[in-house]
């Protein structure tokens, strides 16, 4: 099975099948756009309440004031006057966001973290640092990251592995790392003043433990955590089971880290249209590892195909269940299998709609599953 | 099994058993009301934080300043001075709300949507339109509805049916319809610029697909959805299984669409006291289909009898479980059976109490199960 | 099996094993504190958004401006100038909170409620009253309590018991008691104007019913409930099963009532560091009864050991499941077993981090499981 594909952007854009269906309407819209000339500035009135300030999109205020993507439907044609109407401006913004997807941004997320062996111990290194983070094209914010990534690099080991993790703090305040979901000796648990001293600015701290339980876990700051985790000190810690038969069969896997704090509404540190689509070939089974590092629930709704939920917090459920909308609460991880039986570009988003769409178009916690 | 009863108001008011218990205390209170004379205006201080602006109730500022419903309990009698006290005013407002329940309002919800056959296809028609919607007696708001109903008309078919749905847009902005929970071909999925062009103002768009999966589903706008779904573009899409043995046995069923957006806190588009009670005869089993179309969770608490939860998002659970408070997240649907073993008027409400009661009395997401 | 230990503070402070690990780092920090002299006032800038006003901690503005708990880690030493730095001030505040835990406050919670027998009926008495309630050291607020306790006294009976509960209202407004989760005759259900008159100020009302179902239940006001439950009119109602084999085996039990209203973020009416730790001996199994009496979800994350979830709302699940983070919604109760296999002081908190930690340090919904 493959790992997450963090940069499939060009591949996806050039893939024959998925882009064909995906661009059918946007292409249509672009063509239609030439049919209407107009010179007004946007007359859109945006309701502030539905546009979180942290997530204002940056749809380019271009000169292409076309009648974007209105289509004609099967009957009836809207009468248009000489100027662009509010709804045409709105549709144009919605279309512009879709056309940008998946949009290129600077900054990689969750790259596999290399390790070196020292005896039988896998040694990893994490550095807490300030990073200018591009959430969506053009929206850059100071983030606090592990190794410049948000979420931090993926630590992936196998049940029973011995690990040593050196954490260097290059921030202006102390920190500590909690291995959320892993069962570790108390003095490796990462809670300052209870199990260890804080890792002060400029210092390095070493964690060392044997990985006892498999599953989809996380690591994140446990010091001034509302601020530090919000700013980006979080990452996935995935433990493959020693007994592979514990896992259901799947061909590919994806980790989706949900967040709603300092970067706005994000999946894997990016907001739509900079989120990365999940891709699969028809007939493949994919595994999705949901992890909520935010402060709100996110009921994740996949269009087109059901989700078979088989594990919570790294523990297999006694009996898997099916759903199309999975409610993921802060701190929880859920693992699901999707059987990719239906080709197409399937919207995939948080169903708290205000986390996913404003009058400017889709933003935040939206991505797609592309089955080709 | 019967369908939802959308207008049982008079029936309920006149039903011998249920109203007997229901009115026992309110009648008592009315009688007691004649015993105390008072002339002060209400001295109630309302905490703004606990009274959402959208849900300020409209308890009539009548002239009946009786000592409403204080009752006497089993021991002790509160000393009253010559003027009505703050608590008496408060109790009177609480009682007034209850006495109005179920209050008549204009506007039907979720009426069965008629269809015509064209060959072997069931053809439905939905029109998106602006409607003045009465949420509670006297509180009317502009809503955007399907066919003038909020939630929209109930589409009910059987697994395997072929359907064609004509959607006409009479709004001032484009729209599109997503069949939430149904497995449809990608190009019928209702996501503008990904699977179709938006349905522009004045146009009609046709969806057509075979219904592949049974269960409690929904349809709603997937364009500018935070606004459009909030304004009312949502409805239930119920698919009966071809194999009826898939469902547990029940005598009656009810759909409860939960919402918390432009109309305030509502069940089926109405706030208490305009919500419709569920009614059943002693010994009947009822099925409740919960659907959350809002932006918040709603843990639904039924008094008196437990809920057997047997399906999520249209999928039967591998093993049903029992509860009295079922947390329903946005986009989720849950199906439960209640065995009506205990007669009486049982309160039934969201247990986020601020969605259900203010110092003015009960409002919003409150109804009752009346077992007679 | 033991009951909750509501006042194990001195015991815990003096317990040899648990305090040894718990104080190791705080002692270390105190020693380190003598090495740095400084005279500046705190330069901490607190982000208002992350410090709920109701939960501002009261860390003493002492004169001990030591380099609190910076530790040195395994490598690197932060350069310090002559004055205390912002991060040192912040760490000192974090440490101060931990050192106070478990902090003494006035006011007991959930003491077993005594009863007297009248024939075969257990007679309990509850008085609704105003109480000055100390949430954390020095933060006292007016609360509305049952018998001066918040949560109210624990009512504990056995399935099949006949109970009579006299409720006296010493508040300035009417009230009523709902037995949340218990199946009672309709006229004992506690909903004013539907099943009974309100209990007016100064009066006493009598409830009487046979307890039909076991499990972790609650009692709380059902009149002006958003305000009254928020102010503190709530308590646990625990029903032991007649057939003890219904429960899994456990050595000790704890009830955790979660809240987020008038007292801020609390567990059993107290905010950290005044919360009471759970204590167990190595190898013991503990049962935790979660009850949410607030308006928000609280995903409760226990470090170190998994939770086996076996009951919801008093009903055994058909199959228990494992987790480390259990999402508890308002009105829900969940029962879990923790097998105390790992010694140490394990953080235990709501994983909505803003309910648990600010730049001042941990507060609110934080406690610990101490396994010795």
UniProtKB/TrEMBL annotation, chains A, B, C:
Residues 128-243, 254-359 form the Plastocyanin-like domain. GO terms for molecular function: copper ion binding; oxidoreductase activity. Residues 65-74 have a biased composition (Gly residues). Residues 52-83 are annotated as: Disordered. Residues 52-64 have a biased composition (Low complexity). PROSITE patterns: TAT. PANTHER family: MULTI-COPPER OXIDASE (PTHR11709). This is Multicopper oxidase. The lineage of its organism: Bacteria, Bacillati, Chloroflexota, Chloroflexia, Herpetosiphonales.
């Amino acid at each position: 099975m493959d790992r997450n594909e963090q940069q499939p952007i060009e591949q996806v854009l050039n893939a024959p099948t998925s882009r064909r269906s995906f661009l059918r309407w946007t292409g249509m819209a672009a063509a239609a756009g030439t049919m209407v000339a107009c010179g007004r500035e946007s007359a859109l009135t945006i309701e502030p309440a539905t546009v979180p300030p942290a997530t204002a999109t940056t749809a380019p205020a271009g000169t292409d004031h076309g009648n974007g993507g209105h289509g004609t439907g099967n009957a009836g044609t809207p009468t248009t006057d000489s100027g662009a109407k509010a709804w045409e401006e709105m549709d144009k913004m919605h279309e512009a966001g879709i056309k940008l997807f998946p949009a290129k941004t600077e900054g990689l997320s969750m790259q596999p973290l290399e390790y070196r062996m020292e005896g039988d111990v896998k040694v990893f290194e994490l550095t807490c640092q300030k990073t200018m983070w591009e959430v969506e094209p053009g929206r850059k914010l100071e983030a606090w990251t592990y190794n410049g990534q948000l979420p931090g690099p993926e630590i992936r080991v196998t049940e029973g592995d011995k690990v040593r993790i050196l954490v260097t703090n290059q921030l202006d305040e102390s920190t500590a790392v909690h291995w959320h979901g892993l069962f570790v000796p108390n003095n490796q648990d990462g809670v300052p003043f209870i199990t260890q001293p804080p890792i002060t600015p400029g210092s390095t701290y070493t964690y060392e433990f044997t990985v006892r339980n498999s599953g989809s876990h996380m690591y994140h700051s446990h010091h001034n955590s509302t601020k530090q985790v919000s700013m980006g000190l979080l990452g996935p810690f995935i433990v493959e089971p020693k007994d592979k038969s514990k896992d259901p069969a799947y061909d590919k896997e994806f980790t989706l880290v949900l967040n709603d704090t300092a970067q706005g509404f994000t999946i894997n540190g990016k907001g739509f249209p900079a989120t990365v689509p999940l891709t699969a070939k028809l007939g493949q089974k994919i595994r999705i590892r949901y992890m909520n590092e935010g402060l709100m629930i996110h009921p994740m709704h996949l269009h087109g195909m059901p989700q078979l939920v088989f594990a919570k917090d790294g523990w297999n459920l006694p009996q898997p269940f099916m759903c199309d909308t999975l409610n993921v609460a802060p701190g929880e991880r859920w693992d699901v299998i999707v059987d990719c039986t239906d080709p197409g570009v399937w919207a995939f988003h948080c169903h708290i709609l205000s986390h996913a769409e404003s009058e400017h178009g889709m933003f935040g916690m939206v991505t797609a599953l592309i089955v080709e």
